[in-house]
Amino acid sequence: MGADQTIDWRNAAANALDWWHEAGVDTLVDDVPRDWFAAPEPLVVPAAAPAVPPAMPVATPSAMPLSLADFLNWRSGAEVPEADWSGISLAAIGPADATVMVLVDCPDRDDGDAGALLSGASGRLLDKMLAAIGLTRDEVHLAAVCAKRPTAGRIQSEVEDRLAEIAKHHIGLVAPKRLLLLGNAASRAILGMELQAARGRLHEFNHKIAQTKAGDASDMTSVVASFHPRFLIEKPAAKAEAWKDLQMLMRGQSSQEGGQ
Fold first, then answer.
1. 208-223 pLDDT, tens per residue?
2. Beta pairing class for 178-182 and 220-226
3. Least enclosed by CB within 10 Å: which of 18, 120, 144, 246?
4. Rounded distance between C-alpha atoms, residue 78 and residue 106, angstroms
């Protein structure tokens, strides 16, 4: 009944191979049977490892000189943040062993022509401020956080930290008993706070260069933050507050302590 069920499988296989050969198939796909009708498995692509740039050498500033004379020479050299700025680098002036040190933000506009810090109107006001507490400019050590005046008159944020390190090192070499910070930039550099927050109280600054352990009383500088003379010229009403700051500097106690 029905068709002949006798099949020569050898001939059938040979015919199938001949057909595939004619179709161009000449290579086995797998060693085991594959279900060509099954849904394909999702392709998993390994995430590419992030490219790691080659390590670049990091330039580190050399150690700052440990004598004041060498430091002042280095301060106008090629390793300071202001080295590539335009203008004249103005060195600090005053005795190396001054009891009082004054730190401002940067030279004034006309200081470059005179070749000295605070040589104009703000300098004349500073002289009067010093005279009010029995000092002259020749008796104090006057320096600036910036040895050159920035183009906009403000210290750029990217160099603030390095300039603060340099200023603190400078103070350590002078080791003054009292330090007067004039202006916001000087207050931030040494005390790490804005002028308005720093005013009205006495601060202590450890000027010891190698601070490997707590310093004794001889390593401490009394610090007072006050208004820059150029601000007082623009805002004369603030002179009364500046006078309180000067008194606190010489008295060695804060205004709060004085009222107790």
1. 754 444 445 578 999 9
2. parallel
3. 18
4. 18
Q: At CA 150, angle to CA 145 and CA 152, rounded to 5?
A: 130
Please report, for residues 4, 20, 58, 212, the alpha-carbon distance to residue 220 in angstroms, rounded to integers and kept in the order given.
116, 96, 34, 15
30 within some domain: no
Q: CATH number of the domain at 156, please.
A: 3.40.470.10
Burial tier of 159 (Cβ tally within 10 Å: 0-12, 13-18, 19+): middle
What pairs with residue 101 in β-bridges?
141, 179
60 within domain boundaries: no
Six-digit token string for 126:
């500073």
Quote the CA–CA distance of 181 and 142 in Å, as a whole number.
10
Domain of 126 in residue numbering reads as: 68-258
Q: Tell me what pLDDT residue 100 has.
A: 97
Residue 255, both tokens:
């205004």
Counting the structural domains of the chain, the total is 1
What is the residue-averaged pLDDT of the chain? 83
pLDDT at residue 152, rounded to an integer: 76
Residue 13 lies in a domain: no
Q: CA-CA distance, 51 to 122, in Å (whole number)?
A: 55
pLDDT tens digits, one per residue of 143-183 = 999 999 988 778 888 999 999 999 999 999 999 999 999 99
Whether residue 147 lies inside any domain: the answer is yes
